[in-house]
Amino acid sequence: MNIMNNTANRLDSISTAFRQLDDQFRKKVCEKCAWSEATYYRKRKEAGRLSPAESATMLTIARQLIGNLTKTVSK
Asked: Which end of the chain is more exposed for a tag (fewer CB within 10 A), N or C?
């Protein structure tokens, strides 16, 4: 994700990075937890329905993506 090359519109670049972050998070969670997209959205609405392993997996993914985002917007 190297969208920061276009410095002409930094706001648009940063906004795009945030939109992509949500999509990347969903895809990675579905992949790592072996969920369909429908399962992801269902579990997202049902508070308290995650196993400790699922929660840990999501935190790991979130930390990785936040690190990537920080590197991207720092360029």
From this structure: C
pLDDT of residue 35: 96
pLDDT at 1: 46
- The domain ranges of the chain are 9-74
Closest of 50, 54, 52, 66 to residue 18, by C-alpha: 66
CA distances to 4, 12, 51 from 7, rounded to whole Å, are 6, 9, 42
32's CB contacts (< 8 A; 6+ apart) are: 57, 61
Query: Predicted confidence band at 5 (pLDDT cuts at 50, 70, 90)?
Result: low
Task: Determine the residue type at 67.
Answer: G
Record the tokens describing residue 57, joined without a space. 């997996």
